[in-house]
Amino acid sequence: MNFSEFIEVYASHPNYRAPRGNQLHAKSWQTEAPLRMLLNNLDSEVAENPEELVVYGGTGQAARNKEALQQIIKELLLLDENHSLLIQSGKAVGIVRTHPEAPRVLIANSNLVPAWANWEHFEKLKQDGLMMYGQMTAGSWIYIGSQGILQGTYETFMACGKKYFNNDLKHKLLVSGGMGGMGGAQPLAATMAGATFLGVDIDPERIRKRLHSGYIDQIVFTYREAADLALQAQEKGEAISIGLVADIGDTLQNLLNDGIVPDILTDQTSAHDPLHGYVPNGISLEEAFSLRKADPNKYRELSMKSMARHVGLMLELQKLGSITFDYGNNLREMAKQGGETNAYDYDGFTPKFIRPLFCEGKGPFRWAALSGDPNDIYATDQALIEAFPENKEMINWLKKARERVSFQGLPARICWLGMGEREKAGLLFNDLVKSGKVKAPLVIGRDHLDCGSVASPNRETEKMKDGSDAVSDWPLLNLMSNTAGGATWVSFHHGGGVGMGYSQHAGMVVLADGTDRAAECIRRVLYNDPAMGIFRHHDAGYEIATDTLNHFGMGLSI
Ligand code: NAD
Fold it and tell me: How many structural domains is the chain composed of?
């Protein structure tokens, strides 16, 4: 198949789809893999808005524009194993001489010198065609749809249940805003954890997308109906999810007026981006689209004022007893700038629930089957269940995921694994490819939201014990370790999750193609990557990290 035929079949804008099966289009699996994952990120089953090349998280893109995308595809089809492709904010800019165990693609997205690192400067560069927003896994080509955040969300809700509700979320009402790419995982995670869920989104299409993927149970259009359904389900202890088309601020106000206090309250609107992510209170979606273009400053101002009100209402509900936490969208900061001086009076999810896992090198390990065959993922599920009989939580998760998660795009799986476990799983997967038990290679990656890959003081590194929240040497060391270790593609981004100026983070994907070369790369990368989380948390003074470091004999020589 020549280049134009390839584009016609797999990338005729905006109908993108990764090739399936075990026939190569590129020169080797090392370049076929990023090619398929790039196209998979843009598949309409996966991406929130393929027309704009937007994958998730507000404006998180996979490539800068249509022309840049075609150029990347062309380069990946031609690249050999002694060269690597350079991507600068979603555009191919050069090829460098490397070697077969080096990453085939080196990606840098949305990075700005700190004093210029704000949305205003970024927007100007974007308008001039010089940059794109890469979010975390959008510009680094390892987004796998809402499942990518599903287990993390499930673990967070379960941890909340353990800490505050005697390990039982039955008869508990969980309320959240934002049913987009990531936020859309909340309804399924909540019902998997046993809670009743009310999710609010201003855009009906976003809730319909979750209905289609089986992540949410029903859509309603009036507050009254939503509240009645939620209260009945909560009373009966039914784990069902309801999606209400409305503004989240108005809904929280209505709940307060009616004296309905959610047991758990959080939010995943795209608050990190007050211009393109959050829709201000009191205007329709259509009005929002036109105001965004006509008067961006006014839009931003309205947006931040609405967020101040939104957080003010969350604080009131917290006072009445709702367990309230920030879910990684920088809502508190935007609300503070919008006038809510007490915005930080509730904690973020990392210090509240997740940090102990990070101290063990645990994080959102994920993999995708390049064959496109769901049976390949079921084979990996089974192999993990057999290889980790002692890990009951993981087995429980994999069984639930198989029952409840429908795949979007290439079949994929997420499963939080820690130090030692990731390397073991990766080698196991490489053996499955080698022995032909799966039909084509697998790619193994993760979110940038991981134990040692991100500096984000309002999120992953909030309230670090030693005050090192804003130190971004760590994600840079993570990037360098994974590059030196031989990941198949690596990335370094700015602004993911929480927006410009608030985070820096690194990503990696390593290929399991059944070769000895892949086994060596996997052994190094899947050691280095979780090790960074342990080094980072040990250095910050966390005992669990020090214990894990000692357990694995990873300390420096004395
Ligand atoms: P998205 O842009 O796909 O979805 C955001 C949704 O919020 C949209 O559906 C939009 O209609 C809705 N919305 C905006 N304003 C609203 C309002 N006033 N009332 C009701 N709904 C409103 O984004 P996403 O991928 O779902 O990510 C959501 C946020 O979470 C982002 O800020 C992202 O950076 C962050 N995030 C968090 C994590 C995490 O681990 N907690 C991970 C990834 C992303």
Answer: 2
